[in-house]
UniProtKB/TrEMBL annotation:
Family in the record: Belongs to the UPF0312 family.
Protein name, entry field: Polyisoprenoid-binding protein
Ranges for domain Lipid/polyisoprenoid-binding YceI-like: 15-179
UniProt xrefs under InterPro entries: Lipid/polyisoprenoid-bd_YceI, TTHA0802/YceI-like_sf
Pfam families: YceI
Organism: Kibdelosporangium aridum
Amino acid sequence: MSTPTINIPGYVVGTWTIDPIHSDVSFIVRHLGVSKVRGQFNTFAGEIVTAEDPLQSTVTATIDAGSFHTRQEQRDNHVKSEDFLHVDDHPEIKFVSTGIRQDGGENFLLDGNLTIRGTTKPVTLALEINGFGEGMDGKSLIGISATTQISRKDFGVHGGAAGAAVSDKIQIALEIEAGLKSE
């Protein structure tokens, strides 16, 4: 039995560093069941390793939980408190991939372990490889979009009394640009 060949246009093998200036780590959560609140994390880092076999590629990422913001300081401070993220005791959110698989056609599923507030759970991200290219300085770049949905309660994020106003389900959206490391 032969293994199907995965053809990703312009695919480059190597180790890539996430560029936080040209990337975005965002989320959407329902408030009171009638509206959606959007937010971001400003500080994050990560590495993507593209292997000869794309299905052997890996991703690791760390997010500074204290860099959370929704453009409303009172809400942001509450989410950083013990009721939600408890950033004083859990300053980082981490993701480590455990596998990648094709999701038909050109899209992939990235499996991994996500750690929030000291609790690690498996998650799967729908992954779209936007392309490989060259930056203004001639450096090789990769662009990736990824989405998933998690249950905040699975990670021990209950929200205290305010938790009733916020949905359990959180949509996560990533827009990632990474540059090839010089060897």
